[in-house]
Amino acid sequence: MKRLVLPLAAIALLTSAPAFAQPSPTPALDVIPEAMPFDVPYGQPISLERAQSVAAAAMAEAKKRNWKMNVTVVDPNGDLLAFGRMDGAQLASIEISQHKARVAARYRRITKLFENGVQSGLTYQLTLDGMIASRGGIPLVEGGKIIGAIGVSGGAGSQDEVCATAGAAVINK
Question: How far is it, in rounded angstroms, from Cα 136 to Cα 38?
Answer without folding.
Answer: 18
